[in-house]
Amino acid sequence: MTQNIPIERLTAVADCFPVDGHLLDGIPYGSGHINDTFALRFAENHTSRRYILQRINHRVFKDIPSLMDNIARVCRHVRGCLETEGRADAHRRALTLIPTREGKDVLLDDEGDYWRLYPFIESARTYDIIQSHQQAYEAAKAFGLFQRQLADLPGPRLHETIPAFHHTRARFNAFMNAVEDDACGRAAAARDEIAFAQSREAIVDVLLDQQAAGILPERITHNDTKINNVMMDVTTHEGLCVIDLDTVMPGLALYDFGDMMRTATNTAEEDERDLSRIACDLSRFEALAQGYLGATRNFLNDAEIRQLAFSGILITFEIGLRFLTDYLSGDTYFKIHRDGHNLDRARAQFKLMTSMEDQLDCMQRMVEHATSDTGR
Ligand code: ADP
Ligand code: GN1
Ligand code: MG
Asked: How would CATH label the architecture of 7-122?
């Protein structure tokens, strides 16, 4: 969640972009854990127009010029694909960066903060919890299409905006170091969660080993396919536009499917404290597999398809590990809104992971059906 920023500062930042009209207000927007996002409203000829302004977290993203270079290339390419297909509404289906008055993709202000601006995509919204199977299908189709659009992005290779972002062995090692250091004396309070995480160590190498063996190919992936990172059209309910592009970089397709599973099949919030409310919903999983495979079956290989259901278990574990590591290290990475918030999040992820493990066989069969339904 984003903190308020005085309107004077937002006005000073907005003045650096060539936007017509005057700023009416700027409200914190969305529920992201890393950046600060604001919806700005400008008055112009008796109407108003909205924009999304984002302050990029430079503690997390160390090389913002490279990150913005990725985003500019990705936005242009996706927009080009849509225009080639003759989509009249390409401007609603791809993010468009508004350059500063100096022609830069990002503004570096006097306080050392980086800001970027996008036109607001109206009549669309995001959901933290999926409301229906149809939404799960649409979201997965949109993320799958995004991977497909980026499959022929011309070189050079995209920058790694956070190196080893989904390297599950490195994430596990960082967790073990945090337990060892116990910098804030919190390990005792997280004894059960630490034991749970240690008991699942064996799974962290599964995809990495297959990648090293050349079985799983590197692709351009989004890497943060949380379900609230796809905008849904409020009229047609279609998955419209993939957003939050900071982590678009080389990765495994399975990282994207896995994070969709983590966020779209969960029956409760990511930080739900009542664990009895958390489960992996199988019918949403089925819709997710159908939507994703419909968009990607032409390029995914058999090994990737075989690991789809497992990828959700792995990524749910990885994000749980990251929350737990952050709790043990003193909450330095993810924004928190209450004491113990990262521990609550870790617990919730581990509960969800257990529910996925219990239903793995059934999910495998659903993937097999979805694969044959899509004509492969
Ligand atoms: P964060 O890193 O904070 O998650 P996002 O890029 O996901 O940042 O943006 C936060 C929220 O702002 C999104 O969930 C979405 O609701 C909204 N949003 C982002 N970009 C746009 C846009 N171009 N038009 C309309 N809403 C947007
Ligand atoms: C962060 O920025 P946001 O809220 O979309 C995080 C993701 C985690 C997610 C967990 C750059 O995403 O990796 O999966 O929180 N982003 C980064 O909710 O670390
Ligand atoms: Mg987001």
From this structure: 2-Layer Sandwich (3.30)
